[in-house]
Queue: 3 jobs
Job 1
Amino acid sequence: MKSICLYLQMHQPFRLKRYRFFDIGRDHYYYDDFANDDVITRIARNSYLPTVEALKEMVETSGGKFKAAISVSGVVLEQLEMYVPELVEALKDLAKTGYVEFLSETYAHSLASLSDIEEFRAQVKAHDEKIYALFGQKPKVFRNTELIFSDEIASMIVGMGFKGVITEGAKHILGWKSPNYLYNSIAAPKLKILLRNDKFTDDIARRFSDTEWSEYPLNAQKYISWVAATPAEEAVVNIFMNCEALGEAQSRESGIFDFLKALPRYAQEAGIGFVTPTEAVTKLRPVDALSVPYPMSWTDEARDVSTWLGNRLQNEAFHKLYALAERVRMCDDRRIKQDWNYLQASDHFFFMSTKYGSGKSSYSPYESPFDAFTNYMNVLSDFIVRVEEQYPTQIENEELNALLTTIRNQSEEIEQLEKELKSARTEKQSARTAKAKTVKAVKESEPKVEVAVEVEKPKRTCKRSCKKADK
């Protein structure tokens, strides 16, 4: 049976405030709280909350036949916990249905997979721990930031124990092949690959409310008929999009949520089911192996990483940031760790992109890419100062790491000796207690011997007789 695999992604960065050169070394708080509160609250109200409510309704009204997947970055979860806690509760209720799968990704929605494998693994681990803590699920399928994927990244993903990965059905990789099959990685054959169908996705995410589109207006029955018309052997149609497409890019007034809710009914009538990514990679067999020698993504026509690392500004900021990775990992300062996560979000590099000319991107809070670069580098300069105060650059990473390893080993040795001492004291005390109990038990078990002693009574004498005798 043909199936639809629907996946929605939620992410918003912590936006930086206007940070000037003269703030470096004086102000260590980098974020625009007002903007962050305003943006996440608006998007949650218009998109996230109604989408989660719609998904739960679709599961319930379909009797569990409808299934979907969601990916939520760690940094957006932090914002939701601060500003929209009711959405976190709604996501928990959605997870309890058992028909919505939470996917793995990097905690910071970062580009770490392109630079630092250790940081990449650490972020994936941190993200999955938060997902488990909040929603009780251990992710089995991985979704990288912006669907970035390559043969090298495939090997990293398999090394972390994932069964499958979601990425873009890019034409320069597929050639004549269809994205509506399950594939596996040529670099890591055990890794199954689900490919986004950009046509079916963009029909909803981009064209749904476009009055100039030849298929406007789009309804659920028409859409499902297009899916049903694909070749019978094409087992799975992967529809992956940003959640903001529902309620933000396509407003509630466009009828997007009514369209979404009607999909399960028409799919059932057409004999089309819904599957989660884990079900897809478990039940289906790969039809071919794909090679992705260079990183690809789901953005722009090129489907590469040039949107984030396509100019000198972006690369300068990117390399300066990740040059700190080794020192930050050695650090135990909670604020530094937190800022490190927030500064890695791919959005900061996207705002520096010049692919749209020197003007402002519609998604950017800055007037120009150069403005975005200047502000980010001012913040990064202060962050560098804070890191170097703890771990000076005069000490090489290897030397510093060796020193810290020695300190950690000594601490572990001291801790072990303290444990052994405590154990010895406990054993000694236990021995004393046992000995005392034994002595007491022996005394209590000894038979009691009663000795009868006869006491000779003195003879009575008559005082009167004695006196007569004396006379």
Job 2
Amino acid sequence: MAEFEFDLFVIGGGSGGVRASRVAASLGARVACAEERYFGGTCVNAGCVPKKLFSYAAHFHDDFQDSRGFGWATPEIAFDWPILKKNKDIEISRLEGIYKSILENNKVTVFKQRATIAGPHEVQIGNRQISARHILVAVGGWPWVPAIEGGELAITSNEIFQLESLPECMLIIGGGYIAAEFASIFSRLGCHVTLVYRGEALLNGFDSEVRQFLSAEMGRHMELHLQADPVKIERNNRGLLTTLDNGLKLESSVVLAATGRRPMTANLGLENVAVKLRDNGAILVDRHFRTDEPSIYAVGDVIHRVALTPVALAEAQLVARALFADDVREMDYQNIPSAVFSLPNVATVGLTEQEALGKGLAVDIYSARVKQLKHTLSGREERSLLKLVVSATDDRVLGVHMVGPDAGELVQGFAVALNCGATKADFDRTIGIHPTLAEEFVTMRTRSKSHP
């Protein structure tokens, strides 16, 4: 009789949990996975995928306007929110089914209910206690609403996808990527958007020049209140009234708190084991994703690393292969590309100018602010920013940053170049594709600034 019922018990059926389950099962392990909410996790159900579908919808607003400069006589255009929501729901339901099928097709035992940790090798599901040689925590994060008077009147990114009608006006609290994306989306879908953020520019943590540029571009399409904080939300005759710390009062139909996410470690039973947490609830793990409890591992948004779906997938695969294929490797967190699907898009890989200086590196900066050829006829007053951070010591390109259309699609390729150690000379001798926006990355010859 086996000492444990399962070799691996995964708590959480999101991207990381499903990947770990599938890989471990393919390596011959007896695997179980418990998910209390929806398979595919935040990304599939209330994050990356539905948000990108909404972003596509928002793009049509600009496309219809721009087409007129190219000779298209477009009739009166009307947007139908219920159609978008219905089609989005159908696609998300399809994807969730695929994630569940991945587990079932790989002979993973699936529990569609909440699981908690009862001990180093024990998982509690309802009245049943299940033993496992290893436990992997992959429960992800959950939207966090700051302590504002009346904060319970705000919705989060979870509820935004389920709105039955398009709000006439929306106030968004926050300045990170979630706030920037939803502000861009709803402003293009026909909603009057007011964005309130306590910082001096959007996207804290991104390159400073990128932050300032995006804030200016987004400010063309919405009411932007920077260096301001909401202190109170209350109902009034016309919806909601939000009071800012500067005394300004703003009315809206909906208030969206897009103020970040926190790991979902509360009431998970971690007090029963030697797992340590950060102040924000994130699980502390070593370089192999093992907690202080040797039999328990954690990956994805629930740990203190990089909260991106592809990162969770990579971390989960490393854990599964280390446990069941004796293939022990470490995660490389350098040069992880990321994108913000705001309008305009933002994408980045490598070091920001500020990070490079913080490391004491001598760097040369190349940047260009250009008007895309398309807008010479569309008439749109939109510019794009392209930026390179280059080592002044060995000419290696340390960072690539872009604000502009399809930035994520373009920067993905440059992430490969950075991982291969590309230099500015490599960029310079690369022939550009003309006329494209991307060619600007290989035609920038004049330094905009230097930091010796």
Job 3
Amino acid sequence: MAKIDEYFHKLIESGGSDLHITQGQPPKVRAHGSIKPISDEILTASYMEMLMKEICEEKAWERYQAAGDLDFAYEMDENSRFRCNYLKQLNGYAAVFRIIPTKIATLEQLNIPPIVKEFGHMRSGLVLVTGPTGSGKSTTLAALLDYINTNFSRHIITIEEPIEFVHRNKKSIFTQREVPIQTPSFSDGLRAALREDADIVLVGEMRDHETISLALTAAETGLLVFGTLHTNNARKTIDRIIDVFPADQQSQVRTMLAASLRGVVAQLLVKKADGKGRAAVNEILISTPAVGAIIREGATQKLYDVIIGGKALGMQFMDEAIWEKLRDGYISPMEAYMKAIDKNRFKAFLPAEDAAVGNASGGEVGKA
């Protein structure tokens, strides 16, 4: 057994989600949103190097030494898989490991709104699942792909960095490719997918102009493309895609996005009031003729009214989703306040001492 596996076992025993090891500090785990040390030992440079090299291929280690960052996946056993991020920091080596569940949860188990299944029935277009780092985007997408895999015969290509959830073929056929091992970049993998008889392509991260441009083209030419962005709501998602392009191309991109976008599922994780873990809250935008017109006009501020007015179609505004969780006693008033876009709506529910904290923060927390 690799020495680092001892830390992974402690992470699993603690019920945590992430293991942090940093040169000059004790090992820590994140459990239910909080980070705590799991021992008093201070990790030295030589010990860190030994731990990290145990589970890393030699060529990948060389790449990490040169670049200072590395992403890959490690399978300890058939029940334990981890997403690994190696980095260099002020005091030397560091790494963060996140548990990847080997059993893919269903959309129902994740309490994702039922309308999200409808995106799995589509044959073409662009569907974006967005949210900050660690908000469960990959978990939600894995559940949606598993729903498709269970119900439809499709060829699904995933391009990920690293591969998190390993899908077994059910009705569908999966081709999973890891950046930079099986394909040099997201854009290279997406370009190749256009020639690989794909029905569906998952792009793990739409982070640059080329990848976004290819995703729009693929969606226009008949593929169903699922992509992720680090944005908190539907309006910011559309703005981010447009802003990636030079000003002289933005009008054309608005037209392409208006034609190909099928929907946006924005996701945040909120701490449960009972302290037992976290749950997803979602904003959902479904493309309609009105949404298409708004995107073409560049008037994304109007999306708020469309989402509020589209409740019967399954649309949902983020603050409404947070309000429902608060109303049902599922989350605390402070958690609702911290995660909400319109802070004033939730300030009245804060206890006096928490309201003072909210005022001191200027109501900006959670707006990123």
